[in-house]
Design brief:
This protein is an alpha+beta fold. The protein has helices at 32-42, 49-59, 95-105, 109-116, 124-130, 157-172, 175-180, 185-196, 222-227, 233-236, 248-253, 265-299; strands at 62-68, 71-76, 84-90, 143-147. Mean pLDDT is 76; it is low at 1-6, 201-215 and 296-306.
């Protein structure tokens, strides 16, 4: 239920474990497409609440953010004990709109190559305009918002905080913009393939070909997971070596949404994986050396007594 808002300044309660922005001062976001999102929002001239939203984003008042096609749902810790719940609905493009866009885009190989590499082409907005569409919301009415806080404004500072954090997340995943407009990355490339014959790779670009084996289902049986499986004779005698790719499962999972560690998670743990692989190889090699040396030691004659 909405309550009257008396316009008195309020101080938010301290939030533990919130999503703090990477930006401590100055501009939010780094890539051009993320900056463009912030620019569009600030261009709507919606008052001082965007500034207060920046403060909330930097303090970590936003507790959770979930993104689905056309929707963002989040919880934000405000001045009251119970966090506020909010929803942002972004106007989505129709199936016909996406097909029109795919038809235009499929004729531009360079754009498709950049998208496949996870990069948003600099002039992607021109492609949208050629199809008679807009990548970013073109007016405030394209964003419908709702928050359980007593502020009737649109957006309130809680929604504004989520806007800014979304902008930072666009740096990590530019296809989040497509998702807000109603289309997930894989579905879009499938559409491109059907319209223009664009071959969608079976694995993310930039990863070695041996990662294709990661498409096998993960083991769900705990006994099998912890106990392992019998090693076939041909594998037992095979050469032991460090895996050609470090932390393949983490590469498969890619970046974690709204990760706010000091460094990217993969960057933090990959050296540990590499060290563990090297140490494991040393243990196996030393064990094999000990096993092969044992019979020789047993057959050796004891030294003559003096």
């Amino acid at each position: 239920m909405w309550e009257p808002w008396d316009n008195k300044p309020s101080r938010p309660r301290e939030a533990k474990g919130g999503i703090k922005s990477r930006s401590k001062r100055g501009e939010f976001a780094e890539s051009w497409w993320a900056k463009r999102w912030i620019e569009v929002l600030e261009g709507f001239d919606i008052g001082s609440r965007l500034g207060r939203g920046r403060s909330y984003a930097r303090k970590g008042q936003v507790l959770t953010i979930d993104v689905d096609p056309g929707w963002v749902r989040a919880t934000v810790q405000g001045s009251r004990p119970k966090p506020y719940e909010l929803a942002i609905q972004c106007k989505t493009l129709s199936a016909a709109d996406w097909s029109k866009l795919a038809d235009v885009l499929s004729k531009q190989a360079l754009h498709v190559a950049k998208l496949l590499a996870g990069e948003m082409p600099q002039d992607i907005e021109d492609v949208f305009q050629e199809a008679g569409l807009s990548l970013f919301p073109s007016r405030l009415g394209d964003l419908s918002t709702k928050c359980t806080c007593p502020d009737w404004s649109n957006p309130c500072k809680h929604i504004a905080a989520v806007y800014y954090l979304l902008g930072e997340e666009f740096d990590r995943d530019p296809f989040l913009i497509f998702e807000l407009r109603g289309m997930k990355r894989d579905a879009f490339f499938t559409l491109l393939d059907s319209v223009g014959g664009v071959e969608v790779p079976s694995q993310p670009l930039g990863l070695p070909s041996h990662t294709v084996a990661l498409a096998e289902p993960l083991v769900t049986d705990l006994a099998t997971f912890w106990g392992g499986r019998p090693i076939p004779a041909d594998e037992a005698s095979a050469a032991v070596e460090v895996p050609p790719m470090t932390a393949p499962l983490l590469h498969r999972l890619s970046g974690f949404p709204f990760w706010r560690g000091e460094s990217p998670l993969l960057e933090l743990v990959e050296p540990t994986y590499a060290l563990a692989s090297t140490r494991g190889l040393e243990l196996v090699v030393n064990q094999d050396s000990s096993s092969s040396a044992a019979p020789a030691a047993t057959s050796a004659k004891p030294p003559a007594s003096s």
